[in-house]
Amino acid sequence: MADKFCVSLTTAKDNPDKSTVAFVVANAAVASDKNTLVFLSTEAVRLSQKGYAEDIAEDGFAPLAELMTNFAKAGGQIYVCAPCFKKRGLDESQLIDGAVVVGGAKLVEFMSGGVSSVSY
Fold first, then answer.
1. In a 3-state reduction of DSSP, which class is residue 56?
2. Considering its fold, how many domains does the chain have in total?
3. CB–CB of 84/41 below 8 Å?
4. Which of 1, 3, 93, 108 would you call most buried, defined as having the most Cβ atoms within 10 angstroms of its Cβ?
């Protein structure tokens, strides 16, 4: 069984349900002792900015900012797509804990060798 797990997320405030569920699944994976990565691309890169997720809360789930904080505290990694980040003019000094802006090669490196993954 693979010891790595990747959640790929492409949404933010444009689809708070998907964004929330992605971090619920990521938290479940990291709690199951998987080396867990959330890859934020396209619109989801906005979630990497401090304060952005504060007002995202879906009924029946913990608030997204709380899920993201808990994920990072549990050792989860957040990779932020560099070209997507740059395209949106975001600020690297405002990255949330656990987030790092990376190129595609870092994702490929993590995924090589067989990794279970889901996409939202």
1. coil
2. 1
3. yes
4. 3
- CA nearest neighbour of 108 among 42, 39, 48: 39
Q: How many other C-beta atoms can be found within 10 angstroms of the C-beta atom of residue 52?
A: 19
Q: Where are the alpha helices (DSSP H) in the chain?
A: 16-31, 64-73, 82-87, 104-111
- What CATH number has the domain bearing residue 83? 3.40.1260.10
Q: Tell me: the pLDDT tens digits for 48-91?
A: 999 999 999 999 999 999 999 999 999 999 999 999 999 999 99
The 3-state DSSP composition of the chain as helix, strand, coil percent (nearest 5) reads 45, 20, 30
Which residues constitute the domain of residue 11? 4-119
**Taking every pair of C-alpha atoms in the chain, what is the biggest distance, in angstroms?**
39
Q: What is the DSSP letter of 48?
A: G
**Rounded Cα gap, residues 92 and 55, in angstroms:** 21
